[in-house]
């Protein structure tokens, strides 16, 4: 046969090394589908738990980073960004890339947008964005923070699709973006739906985990209250939040925020201020209009008066009941929706359903790896630069000899060889200012110049040989050595790594965190514990040795000025309080209020009033160490009541400042919102210098005037506008210039309708109009506020009062007197005052506090020191 075969032989189908293998079609399809499914799951639909991004989002942001679109740079056309992304990293078409870019720039879709868009990026009504040739974009500050330190080998890079360049596998992520902005995605056989949360709360949660890794997901609820949607709204019920925090899955009932207004003709209108997340406002208005047409709700008209803020007006019928209409709207329209949470993310290359603690721990471990890799990189760079500077120092120390060698050499290589033959002892190089940190820098116990140092020496410019330049080189070298030691300390200490992570997170939160937008209220049938606590006025007392209690205000009877008083506290054995322990702080509040405890060390702790142990007036109290987690050297310096504004807690977001004063006259004001996220172990409220201590904290509006009073009877009045707003960790500025041995004992906020009450240790006191205290500049010596004599003793207390106020006076031996302010005579500034109470031999007045009137307690308004 022509092909070499004979009749009857089977002809092979293929020749050479080719091979045919029989496969089952169903098995092959199954394997191919699994490969496809995993590709969709890992590389398309699900976010990475570390930076919270899908590959398409990460590639867009990285392309913008490479284009230099920092927050302080001008915007660039989105078409250019999409083109760069598609051509370099994501070859899937602009119709897949541009919508992803738009989504990351929409403030109603992202809790904290990662892209700053300019132009038409759509609307909450569902309007599409303009074409990418018309819109422009750049990174936001948070978008840029995701990639901070990426150039310091903090993350791995892999080749792109055509292996012409590399792209990061994950971003360093300076904040927990997965929980901040949430994520939604549908993969093959699985889906994720993670709600957004508040950045400040999440940072507090991570810091709490750093402090106590044994915290349970249930305990983390104290720091991360729940989802915080960009469109606001109201989450109804805590059970859904608790379920997904504990298990990774749960359902949240989300409602719009509505209120009722009366129009001119006396009819009621329902106003929709905030709509649920992912609800189309135009569709919502259309649906309400259909219900009105079908007469399913008692309304006559609906109008969308929204601008950048939502305002949908629903006109009600004259006889309509607003609450009934509101409930029908919740039932029949998307004004109430269900957000089904499924916290599914990629962890270690595999999809996992994670609860709150697991997500925070994954992020924390990622940041730990980033900090370690960054520290190694910076240490290596510091040592490389230090090596060059060491070469400069050697050359400058042997300048004449090295210049002779260089001038006499025939070429650069000859000079390089001859200089490389120089050897120096350890003592010699240390005399040059060099620190020999590693033994490998010495060859046979001698210091020899490296190739890099020789090249640097030969490249020295003449101006670098001057004495001034030598000092600059030496100064830079010393700073590098200090930095290298600091980095080695970080690399060798897990505690320092975690402390650095915490400090960086707190810095991000201080600059970029915003107040909570979504309100969380109990569902019908859910009873908050505080709802079971009766609202009543109580007296909080704290002794010098740290025993605290609350006692009903009714247990203290009102007495006239100059009375003998009643025993307010006795020792545990039934006897009066020991002379070495006495009541040092007194505070009146409602059981539903919050108390902020400020310590002499400048830290702040928060506790609900009803959580303070309730005891009889004569009881000693419970140790403050059993109530607050104080450090061993901390003592309570001041207490502040924050009135509860809702079932959800204190009114932390109201405008205002906390004004701090220390014994050495330092003052500072910090926004109240800085203290919205307290931890059980407390937070830093003010930095205190050595030898100083915090003595008072007041709530102010930021534009008031304050008076500082010293124990020697001096005072100074100045505007708090002279004290700029500062963060929690700031130390403040000088408020008053003190004489030797003098100390500030109190601070008061000026109130034209009030008077300044000043009390001496011997029981004398007086009221003086604030007008008698002229306004001075901050930092002066002040004027006399009480004429000090042996009869008055040193000033122990001062506060602003009005005629309707009542006071509680406490002595060192535990006597208490409750008396009206009206009975204390007004006198001039430079006087001694009148007798407030009769003191026993050896007793002295140590505290004066204002009693909160009952009607003020019932109103639950204001913050009172």
Describe the structure.
It comes from Methylacidimicrobium cyclopophantes. Pfam families: DNA_gyraseA_C, DNA_topoisoIV. Its main location: cytoplasm. Keywords: ATP-binding, Cytoplasm, DNA-binding, Isomerase, Nucleotide-binding, Topoisomerase. Heterotetramer, composed of two GyrA and two GyrB chains. In the heterotetramer, GyrA contains the active site tyrosine that forms a transient covalent intermediate with DNA, while GyrB binds cofactors and catalyzes ATP hydrolysis. This protein has 865 residues and is of the alpha+beta class. The chain folds into 4 domains: 120 residues, Alpha-Beta Complex (Topoisomerase II, domain 5); 78 residues, Gyrase A, domain 2; 116 residues, Topoisomerase, domain 3, CATH 1.10.268.10; 336 residues, 6 Propeller (Neuraminidase). The protein is 28% helix and 25% strand. The chain contains 19 helices and 47 strands. The strands form 14 sheets. The protein has a 5-stranded antiparallel β-sheet, with no helix packed on it. Strand 4 and strand 5 form a beta hairpin. Helix 2 packs across helix 3 and helix 7 runs antiparallel to helix 18. The radius of gyration is 36 Å and the shape is flat. The chain starts with 24 loop residues before the first helix and ends with a strand. The N terminus and C terminus are likely disordered.
């Amino acid at each position: 046969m022509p092909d070499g075969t004979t009749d009857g032989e089977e002809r092979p189908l293929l020749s050479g090394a080719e091979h045919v293998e029989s496969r089952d079609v169903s098995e092959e399809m199954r394997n191919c589908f699994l490969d496809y499914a995993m590709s969709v799951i890992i590389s398309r639909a699900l976010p990475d738990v570390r930076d919270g991004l899908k590959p398409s989002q990460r590639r867009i942001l990285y392309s913008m980073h490479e284009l230099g679109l920092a927050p302080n740079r001008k915007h660039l056309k989105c078409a250019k960004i999409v083109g760069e992304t598609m051509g370099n990293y994501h070859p899937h078409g602009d119709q897949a890339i541009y919508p992803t870019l738009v989504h990351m720039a929409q403030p109603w879709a992202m809790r904290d947008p990662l892209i700053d868009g300019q132009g038409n990026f759509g609307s909450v009504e569902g309007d599409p964005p303009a074409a990418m040739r018309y819109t422009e974009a750049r990174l936001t500050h948070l978008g840029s923070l995701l990639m901070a330190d990426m150039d310091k080998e903090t993350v791995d890079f892999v080749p792109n699709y055509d292996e012409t360049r590399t792209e990061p596998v994950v971003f360093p992520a300076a904040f927990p973006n997965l929980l901040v902005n949430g994520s939604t995605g549908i993969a093959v056989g699985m889906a994720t739906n993670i709600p957004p949360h508040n950045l400040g709360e999440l940072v507090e949660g991570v810091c709490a985990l750093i402090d106590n890794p044994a915290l349970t997901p249930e305990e983390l609820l104290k720091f991360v209250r729940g989802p915080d949607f960009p469109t606001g709204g109201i989450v109804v019920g805590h059970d859904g939040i608790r379920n997904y925090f504990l298990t990774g899955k749960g359902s949240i009932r989300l409602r719009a925020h509505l209120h009722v207004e009366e129009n001119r003709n006396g009819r009621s209108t329902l106003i929709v201020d905030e709509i649920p997340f992912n609800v189309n406002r135009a569709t919502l208005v259309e649906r309400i209009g259909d219900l009105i047409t079908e007469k399913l709700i008692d309304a006559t008209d609906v109008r969308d008066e929204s601008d950048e803020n939502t305002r949908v007006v629903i006109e009600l019928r004259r006889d309509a009941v607003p609450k009934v209409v509101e409930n029908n709207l919740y039932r029949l329209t998307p004004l109430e929706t269900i957000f089904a949470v499924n916290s599914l993310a990629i962890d270690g290359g595999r999809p996992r359903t994670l609860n709150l603690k697991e997500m925070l721990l994954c992020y924390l471990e990622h940041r730990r790896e980033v900090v370690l890799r960054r520290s190694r990189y910076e240490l290596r760079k510091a040592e490389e630069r230090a090596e060059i500077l060491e070469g400069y120092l050697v050359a400058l120390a042997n300048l004449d000899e090295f210049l002779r060698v260089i001038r006499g050499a025939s070429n650069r290589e000859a000079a390089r060889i001859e200089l490389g033959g120089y050897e120096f002892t350890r003592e010699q190089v240390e005399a040059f200012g060099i620190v020999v940190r590693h033994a490998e820098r010495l060859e046979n116990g001698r210091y020899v110049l490296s190739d890099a140092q020789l090249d640097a020496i030969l490249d020295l410019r003449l101006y670098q040989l001057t004495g001034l330049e030598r000092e600059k080189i030496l100064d830079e070298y010393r700073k590098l050595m200090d930095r290298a030691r600091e980095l080695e300390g970080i690399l060798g200490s897990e505690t320092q790594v975690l402390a650095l992570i915490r400090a960086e997170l707190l810095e991000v939160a201080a600059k970029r965190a915003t107040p909570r937008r979504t309100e969380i209220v109990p569902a019908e049938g859910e009873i908050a514990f505080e709802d079971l606590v009766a609202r009543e006025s109580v007296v909080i007392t704290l002794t010098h040795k740290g025993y605290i209690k609350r006692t009903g205000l009714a247990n203290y009877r009102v007495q006239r000025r100059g009375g003998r008083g009643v025993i307010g506290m006795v020792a545990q054995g039934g006897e009066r309080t020991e002379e070495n322990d006495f009541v040092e702080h007194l505070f009146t509040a409602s059981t539903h209020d919050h108390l902020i405890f400020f310590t002499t060390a400048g830290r702040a702790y928060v506790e609900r009033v009803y959580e303070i142990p309730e005891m009889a007036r004569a009881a000693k109290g419970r140790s403050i160490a059993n109530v607050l987690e104080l450090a061993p050297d901390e003592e309570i310096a001041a207490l502040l009541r924050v009135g509860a504004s809702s079932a959800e807690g204190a009114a932390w977001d109201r405008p205002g400042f906390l004004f701090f004063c220390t014994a050495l006259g330092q003052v500072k004001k910090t926004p109240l919102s800085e203290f919205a996220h307290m931890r059980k172990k407390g937070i830093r409220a003010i930095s205190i210098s050595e030898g100083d201590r915090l003595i008072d904290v007041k709530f102010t509006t930021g534009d008031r005037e304050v008076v500082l009073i010293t124990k020697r009877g001096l005072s100074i009045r100045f505007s708090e506008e002279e004290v700029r707003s500062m963060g929690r960790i700031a130390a403040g500025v000088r408020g008053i210039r003190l004489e030797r041995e003098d100390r500030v004992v109190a601070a008061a906020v000026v109130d034209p309708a009030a008077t300044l009450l000043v009390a001496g240790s011997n029981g004398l006191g007086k009221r003086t109009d604030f007008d008698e205290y002229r306004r001075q500049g901050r930092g002066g010596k002040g004027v006399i506020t009480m004429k000090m004599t042996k009869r008055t003793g040193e000033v122990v207390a001062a506060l602003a009062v009005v005629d309707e106020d009542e006071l509680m006076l406490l002595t060192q031996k535990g006597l208490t007197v409750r008396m009206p302010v009206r009975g204390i005579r007004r006198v001039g500034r430079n006087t001694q005052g009148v007798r407030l109470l009769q003191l026993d031999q050896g007793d002295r007045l140590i505290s004066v506090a204002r009693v909160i009137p009952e009607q003020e307690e019932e109103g639950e308004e204001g913050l009172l020191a």
